[in-house]
Input
Amino acid sequence: MVSRKKSDFTDRKSRAFTLIELLVVIAIIAILAAILFPVFARARENARKASCLSNLKQMGLAWIMYTQDYDEKAVPSGTLDMAPSGCPGGPTSVNLSNAILWEGQHNFSVTPGTSDPLKSPMYPYMKNTQFTGCPSANDVAPDVWGTTNYGYNIAYVGGYGGFTECYVSTFPPGATATPASLASISRPSETVLFGDSGLPGANGVTRYPWLFPPSFAPTWAEDAHAIHNGMANMVFVDGHAKAVKLYYSANHGSTSESQDIGYLSSTGNPGDGTDSMYTNQ
Output
């Protein structure tokens, strides 16, 4: 009987983990976690990227349906002056708390600005508010320009309207003050319509509803946002959506590039002023 108890004790002792074995197991788990967690993060970002592409695809289709109902004219960038309150040389006669932009009724009189997407010209064609932002942009803060981080091709498609009253005296050749017609867009599969956007700043990227071309660089900062693992999602005038690579300009220092804010440029050299992905010029 005594020997049996000793044997039982010995068996139980032989089945126990030693401290070294526990430390080895913990080390293996830590190594696996270090390897797999980045993979999981990329997988989650790929899922958000796919959701963003779906949003933009819907926006492109809604935009096309709008043009068919409005004599093949593009969705207007805004139906009131698009200058925020306090802008040097900006308007004083319009109600800046009730500006209708492409993404909804906008209030410029508060910071951060507010937007009502139900008042967007495209809302009747979408019946949802997914155009208010990319799911990867939850940490991108709004500012006076509002709550969407999808930008619209303002200079060549939506029309710059009264924007010149605030920021510039002239736009590049071929830019339009009023919404463009479909007939004027000769290469719809190459002309960007909407895409990930943002403004660089000392406190990080903020949301912005426009996409400006490289030729606008001397006056305005880069605003296309490579938020998806170094790529930006875009939808084009013909309705197809894809992720694209951005190019960076030295006109505004290192902030833009460090925050992944750049330009769309088919030449890869935004300094040459080529607006080929924004216009047919």
Remarks:
- The mean pLDDT is 79.
- The first helix runs from residue 2 to 14.
- The radius of gyration is 26 Å.
- The beta strands are 99-101, 104-107, 114-116, 150-153, 192-196, 210-211, 224-225, 232-236, 241-244, 261-262.
